[in-house]
Amino acid sequence: MNLNEYLRVGSEARLKVVPAEIDFLAQKLADSISAGGKLVAFGNGGSAADSQHFVAELTGRFLQEREPLPAIALTTNTSALTAIGNDYAYDEVFSRQVRSLVGKNDFVTGISTSGNSANVIKGIEAAKAKGAFTLAMTGSKGGKLLGIADRTLRVESDMTPIIQEIHIAAIHMICMRLDQILNKE
Fold first, then answer.
1. Residue 135 forms beta bridges with which residues?
2. What residues have CB less than 8 Å from 61, skipping those under 6 apart?
3. What are the angstrom distances between the C-alpha of 145 and each of 78, 130, 140, 154, 176?
4. For the range 62-65, what are the long-range contacts, defined as Cβ-Cβ under 8 Å and sequence gap of 24 or more?
5. Is the whole model's pTM more than 0.90, yes or no?
6. Per-residue model confidence as pLDDT tens for the chain (185 residues)
7. Residue 22 structural domain
8. What are the angstrom distances between the C-alpha of 23 and each of 54, 89, 177?
9. Contacts of 3 by beta carbon, 8 Å cutoff, 6+ apart
10. Is 8 a domain residue?
11. Cα dihedral 167/170/175/176 (nearest 10)
12. Helix axes 160-182, 3-15, angle to 10 degrees
C-alpha cells in the first residue's frame, strides 16, 4: 500500500463515523457518571494507549474546564498485569480486574482492532456479567466482540493504523459531546 492509498482508505473510514452513535455513547457515559459509575477501559498495545488516552481526557479535561470525571484504564498497573498473567493466564488480565472493580453503573470500553483479542473479550464478558454497559471498539469485521458487547463501534478498515486513528477520533468526539451534555449545551 502506498501513501495515497493509505490516505484514501483513512478518509473513507473517517466519513463512516455516525454522529448519532457518538451522541448515544456520550449520553450513556454521562448517564453512567451521573449514576455514580465510571469509565473503565482496556486494550492491548496501541489499543492500551488509546484506553489510557480516553481515561486521561476524563480525569484531566478535554476542551472545557470541568471537574475530573471518574475513569480508570486497566492497562496501567503492571504489577496486576504481570501477576495475573503469570498466576492465571494473559487472557485473564482484564477480566480479573473487571470482576474486582466494575459495578452495574459503569461504562466499560474494550478496544481491539481485530475484535478477537481473548483478554479483551473476557474483560467485556466479565463487565456484562456485572451488569455494566459495554462498548467494543474494533475494525470493520468486529470480530467476536461484535456479538458480545452491548454496542460495537466498528471502523470500516482492516488496516490497524487507520483503525487506531479513527478510534482516537471517536474517543475525542465522545469526549466533546460528553462535555456538552454535562454542561447542558
1. 109, 151
2. 68
3. 25, 17, 12, 10, 25
4. 62/172, 62/175, 62/176, 62/178, 62/179, 63/175, 63/176, 63/179, 64/179, 64/183
5. yes
6. 677 777 777 777 666 778 899 999 999 999 999 999 999 999 999 999 999 999 999 999 999 899 999 999 999 999 999 999 999 999 999 999 999 999 999 999 999 999 999 999 999 999 999 999 999 999 999 999 999 999 999 998 889 999 999 999 999 999 999 999 998 87
7. 18-182
8. 16, 37, 7
9. none
10. no
11. 150
12. 30
H or E element at residue 137? strand 133-138
| CATH number, residue 69 | 3.40.50.10490
How many independent structural domains does the chain possess? 1
C-alpha cell at 92: 485473564
The Cα–Cα gap between 176 and 40 comes to: 18
SS3 92: helix
CA distance 138 to 72: 20
Does a structural domain hold residue 9? Answer: no
Residue 10 belongs to some domain of the structure: no
Q: Does the residue 43 lie in any domain?
A: yes
Rounded CA gap, 16 and 77, in Å?
Answer: 34
Q: DSSP letter for 64, please.
A: S
